[in-house]
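Researcher: Quick test of sequence recovery. Tokens follow.
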């Protein structure tokens, strides 16, 4: 296979990776707190003395859009959304994780938990507890929690320190490679949920573009394969 074939194959591989990412975005366009992903293509150039350089595209880097999704009123007492730069912290078997998905409920022990059963943490990184007999549960804009007019604590709203990387784990949770601090300017909204920030229409359009680009690459590879076969046949005949 010639250099053009290797170059095209590397591009095809990258397009397949991007197609999977776009398809996952579309599948999660209605997932609470989901963050859209994208693929970054990079160029790898290799050169040798007396030869032309070989350029190959790679798509091994994913980036996540942290833009806020639309806030929709749900009316649920335990449905929470964050307006601004901040994340809820949850306790998982792998450690503490950040999320924007605020569709919470309580477990049998009265702990506030995610849909996966992970406990939500307060500002001091302890589990948030809500009495089972509470008739009225209120969350203030600063996250202050009260039940039947009695203050119980404050749900934590956090963010990574500047320049630290957030690594996606699962669909709506992130691991922080570095320190985490309290997000002082973010507001907690009770009875609201933050939707996915995926633009389904633009993602569908991108999927069509990827498919067409992939088909063009396949057509080129088939033409190149036919050219090589014909060249070999001509050499054999001669």
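Model:
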């Amino acid at each position: 296979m010639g250099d053009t074939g290797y170059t095209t194959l590397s591009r095809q591989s990258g397009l397949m990776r991007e197609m999977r990412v776009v398809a996952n975005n579309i599948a999660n366009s209605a997932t609470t707190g989901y963050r859209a992903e994208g693929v970054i293509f990079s160029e790898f150039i290799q050169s040798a003395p007396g030869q032309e350089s070989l350029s190959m595209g790679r798509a091994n880097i994913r980036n996540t859009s942290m833009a806020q999704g639309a806030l929709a009123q749900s009316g649920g007492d335990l449905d929470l959304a964050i307006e601004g730069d901040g994340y809820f912290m949850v306790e998982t078997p792998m450690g503490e994780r950040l999320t924007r998905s605020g569709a919470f409920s309580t477990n049998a022990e009265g702990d506030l938990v995610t849909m996966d059963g992970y406990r939500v943490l307060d500002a001091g990184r302890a589990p948030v507890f809500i009495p089972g007999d509470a008739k009225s549960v209120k969350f203030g804009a600063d996250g202050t929690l009260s039940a039947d007019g009695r203050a119980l604590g404050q749900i934590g709203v956090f963010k990574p320190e500047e320049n630290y990387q957030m690594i996606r784990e699962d669909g709506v949770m992130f691991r922080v490679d570095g320190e985490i601090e309290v997000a002082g300017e973010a507001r907690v909204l009770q009875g609201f949920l933050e939707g996915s920030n995926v633009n389904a229409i633009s993602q569908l359009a991108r999927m069509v573009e990827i498919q067409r680009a992939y088909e063009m690459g396949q057509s080129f590879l088939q033409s190149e394969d036919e050219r090589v076969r014909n060249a070999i046949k001509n050499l054999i005949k001669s």
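Residues 200-237 form the longest helix (38 residues).
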